[in-house]
Amino acid sequence: MKNLNILENSLIKRDLTYLRDERTRQYQFRLALRRIAFILAAEIGKNLELDELEVKTPLEITKGYSMKQQIVFIPVLRAGLSMVNSFIEMMPKAKVGHIGMERNEETLKPRTYYYKTPKNLDKSKVIVLDPMLATGGSASAAFSFLKEHGANNCVLASLIAAPEGVKRMEHDHPDIPIFTAVLDRELNENGYILPGLGDAGDRTFGTL
Ligand code: PRP
Ligand code: URA
Questions:
Q1: φ, ψ dihedrals at 34, nearest 5°
Q2: H-type alpha helices, the chain
Q3: Closest residue (by CA) to atom 7 of ligand 2?
Q4: Ligand 1: which residue has its CA nearest to atom 10?
Q5: Whole-number Å distance between alpha carbons of 119 and 112
Q6: pLDDT category of residue 1 using cuts at 50, 70 and 90
Q7: For ligand 2, is residue 139 a contact (CB within 6 Å)?
Q8: pTM (2 decimals)?
Q9: Ligand 1 atom 21 nearest Cα
Q10: Is the pLDDT of residue 208 over 90?
Q11: What DSSP character marks residue 103?
């Protein structure tokens, strides 16, 4: 799993415990997810390219930096929406596109029902946000779509990844680094991640 970056962080371990716990209430679930998304954004931020510039402090001129590339976030609806605010706070000039995808509960194949992305994806750093990488079908289809629209510098930010999804991504999109808070054990027969946290969209939006 050479593309996989698993974050080692005690705050993430604590917050994942809240996310997994079936007793966690919706507002606590959202807050814990937001906090982990901050750390993911900071981790992905470590590798972003910079331009050098000069900045004048009240005392003298010194070296400063600005982001080299336009950053574009692409949350995969619905659950990816839960990560957007944290990423925007860390990278406030980012643009945001949306891809609407829903897994068919029987075939586990994703169906795309919406997309709207900013122009010039080919010149942008594209960060796809989706908390769950299960079979990898949704993420793989999202990146295929984005590449067809010119994206060539992409990364996936996820919360929980299953080995099956990581393998699928490495097969279909070997150029895409994956950042995740944890790698879980496996999928069950319904395509849910074990031990996982259940349905991320339903738990975030209260549609259980
Ligand atoms: C969830 C999740 C991912 C997808 C992962 O979305 O947010 O997009 O499943 O599964 P996969 O790796 O097997 O494709 P879901 O289809 O449940 O839609 P929702 O976010 O609207 O609940
Ligand atoms: N989507 C979810 O929300 N949870 C899973 O465990 C798998 C896919």
A1: -60, -40
A2: 10-20, 26-45, 81-90, 137-148, 163-172, 200-205
A3: 192
A4: 134
A5: 19
A6: confident
A7: no
A8: 0.97
A9: 78
A10: no
A11: E
Chain segment 16-46, per-residue pLDDT in tens: 999 999 999 999 999 999 999 999 999 999 9
**How many domains in the chain?**
1
Which of 19, 3, 16 has the alpha carbon at shortest distance from 181? 16
- Asked if residue 125 lies in contact with residue 88, where contact means CB atoms within 8 angstroms, the answer is no
List the domain range (segments joined by +) for residue 100. 4-205
Question: What mean pLDDT, rounded, does the chain reach?
Answer: 97
Please report where in the chains the tokens 């994942």 appear, as a residue. Answer: 16
Q: What is the CATH number of the domain that holds 21?
A: 3.40.50.2020
46: its two tokens? 């470590």
Please give the number of the atom of ligand 1 that sits closest to the Cα of 187: 13
Count helices and strands (H / E) in the chain.
Answer: 6, 13
